[in-house]
Structures are given as C-alpha cells and as structure tokens.
Design goal:
Blueprint: E1 3-4, H1 6-13, E2 22-28, E3 53-54, E4 59-60, E5 74-83, E6 86-97, E7 111-117, H2 139-144, E8 151-156, E9 165-167, E10 181-185, E11 194-202, E12 205-207, E13 216-217, E14 225-234, E15 245-248, E16 263-267, E17 282-288, E18 293-298, E19 306-310, E20 316-317, E21 323-325, E22 330-340, E23 343-355
Parallel strand pairs: 2-5, 2-16
Antiparallel strand pairs: 1-2, 3-5, 4-15, 5-6, 6-11, 7-8, 7-14, 8-9, 10-11, 12-13, 14-15, 14-16, 17-18, 18-21, 19-20, 19-22, 22-23
Length: about 350
C-alpha cells in the first residue's frame, strides 16, 4: 500500500512534510491507457493494489469528535495516477458510507477534501493562515495569496445540483475543463447507505492566479516527489452543523491550509509489465543554428547494449549521446536503432530536425 523509506523520503521530499516514514505512489498510465472520466472503474484495473490508499491510512485529528473510523460507518479506497507529458493528476475515489449526506446547497455535504502542492513550495496556502496576521481578512490576501501556490479542493461526494467541487481560493476556474473534470456513479439517495465511485482529474499549479492566463501549471516528471494529502468530512445528520468525522491522510488537522503539513507522493515510472522489453526513444537540442550543431540524447528503455544513429545526411554514429554537425541545411529524417539481449527497436522522427 505504501513504501517505507524513511531516509529516502526525507531527503527527497525535504524538511517539513508530515509522516516522513511514508512515501505514497502515483501510478503512471501508459499514453494509450489514459483513464476516461466517466465514473467507471474499468480503466483502473491495470493499477496494482500496491497503489491503493485506504481508510487504514487515515486518522481522526479533530479534538472532540472521537475516533469513529469503522469500515461499517465509512470505508474509502483511493488510487492516484498520472500520464507522462500531461500535467494532470487522476483520481479514483471509491467509498461505502452508511449515511450519505448531500441534500443542502452549502458546505454541509460529505466531502473529499484534497490539497496539492506539486512544487513543494510549502507553508500556508489559505488567507486565514497568512504569515502576516493583519492581512488575513483582506481582499489582497484572498486574491494574491489564497490558493495561489498550492490548491485546496472541497469535492462533494456526491455533488447533486451544484458544482462537483469548491476550490477554496480566488481561482474557481481550476475545477473546470480543460483543467479538471469529474464523473460519479451511485444509486443511493440522500440519507441512504451505498457505494459511490468518483473519478476525476485536476491540474496542479505552481502559481494559480485569479486569471487563468497568468497561471503556471506544475510540471510533473517521473520520480519527482510532490506534496499532497486529503481528508474525509463525514456528515451523518442533516441537521447537525458540524461534521461527525474529519479523517485525514496527513494525521495533522492543518493539512487543509498549510502545505508543509502534507505528505510525500512519488510520480512512478510505468510498471515493467506494461512496457515492451526494449523501446527506442530520443530527444535533441540545436546547440547552434549557424553551425548546424545538434546534440542528440538517447531516452530508450530496456537493457540496451548498442546504439546506431542515422542522422539523415548520410552520416551515422554508434555513441549513445552523440553531437553531430550538419554540413548543409535541410529537413532530416533521423533514426535511432537500439539492440540488447531482449531484442531490438528503432525510432525515426521525420523533419523534427530542420536546419537553415
């Protein structure tokens, strides 16, 4: 369910994150298996059970509520995924509750509260925790600070007659396409028991301004550590003004407003069984257009013992990461051939390398 790696997690995630002895995993979906946001679990069948984060990882942290964590009351399972090249986080939330509360239009609703800090910026993220106390109730703190460097989503489970989430801050646009989307599957009514399936994706932001055009999406990269946590707000009485449970993954209540109270998640490589034994891939960078000098970098996968580059100008190389100078300009077809004990593969790119 999680990997115990005290030193590795602490060094990679840096100081300040909660539960430094735990590092949760984010499953990498292959590009041809991106989950469809339709509220169905089929797309997630390829995700191993080792990625499941269940109720056993949550703790009740609000004083006075008492620990009501009981699978007969509420039981949750969460899987998180990503796709290399897309700065999205995908979630499958499955929950069985003995009383689903969602009749009202306000925050009185069973909630999956998610907080994400993908660049590990840390520190307070809501205006109520602004480090300058006199700014906490100002409009400036709301628009220039609240939810800007890390985002808090109050996701309604389920959302009936209202938006699927409340983004706590000045950037409600992050819950809409193309930045996010959600779908539900359930057959219960308010006050009844049953199972809910929620599937959604979000886009984390290093900087989420009130205006979308000013925002800076977080760059998700393989093996990168991000900070994240969630809590489950469980209402069991429509008339009660306070939730009956606040179970959170961080084990610290203030995870909802302080990114330093989140936990470490690692963006995992693709599982080996979902890949071919050997795959050819490469990238390039033009070092000098005037000199037509190009650096090539091998990005192949597998046990590789030989490389052969064809640069498209009649020249070739057997180096792994060659630098090549073209005598003349043009549009080139460059091919990398790789081989190893498990087979061989090639990757051509047509006219990606074009020089004056």
């Amino acid at each position: 369910m999680y990997t115990l790696a005290f030193l590795a997690a602490a060094m990679a995630a840096g100081p300040g994150l909660q539960r430094p002895d735990v590092e949760f995993k984010i499953f990498q979906f292959p590009a041809d298996k991106i989950p469809r946001i339709d509220g169905k679990v089929d797309d997630w069948a390829i995700v191993p059970d080792a990625y499941v984060i269940g109720s056993d990882q949550l703790r009740e942290t609000v004083a006075g509520l008492g620990d009501q964590r009981d699978p007969k009351n509420l039981d949750v399972r969460v899987k998180v995924g990503w796709v290399k090249g897309l700065n999205h986080l995908y979630f499958l939330y499955e929950a069985v509750d003995n009383y689903w509360d969602f009749a009202r239009d306000d925050l009185h609703n069973d909630i999956f509260e998610l907080v994400v800090d993908a660049d590990l910026s840390g520190g307070p993220l809501i205006r109520q925790m602004h480090p300058i106390e006199k700014l906490r109730d100002t409009a400036d703190a709301h628009y220039r600070f609240h939810g800007v460097h890390a985002q808090n989503y109050h996701i309604f489970t389920p959302a009936e007659g209202k938006d699927w989430a409340m983004v706590w801050g000045a950037q409600p646009w992050v819950k809409d396409l193309p930045y996010a989307n959600a779908a539900y599957q359930y057959d219960f009514k308010h006050g009844q028991s049953g199972k809910l399936v929620l599937e959604f994706f979000i886009t984390p932001f290093d900087y989420a301004a009130p205006e979308p055009w000013r925002a800076v999406p977080s760059q998700l990269e393989e093996n990168k550590i991000i900070a994240m946590s969630w809590s489950i707000l469980d209402y069991d009485d429509e008339k009660a003004e306070r939730f009956a449970g606040f179970w959170n993954l961080s084990h610290k209540t203030t995870m909802y407003g302080n990114a330093s109270d989140l936990v470490a998640f690692r963006l995992m490589p693709i599982e080996n069984h979902l890949r071919k034994p050997i795959e050819a891939d490469w990238s390039f960078q033009v070092l000098s257009r005037e000199d037509r000098l190009v650096a090539f970098r091998d990005r192949s996968y597998g046990k590789i013992t030989s490389w052969r580059w064809e640069f498209g100008d009649g020249q070739s190389s057997t180096e792994r990461h060659p630098v090549h100078r073209y005598e003349k300009g043009g549009e080139f077809v460059v091919t990398l051939h790789v081989a190893g004990p498990d087979g061989k593969a090639r990757r051509s790119k047509v006219w990606d390398v074009t020089l004056p």
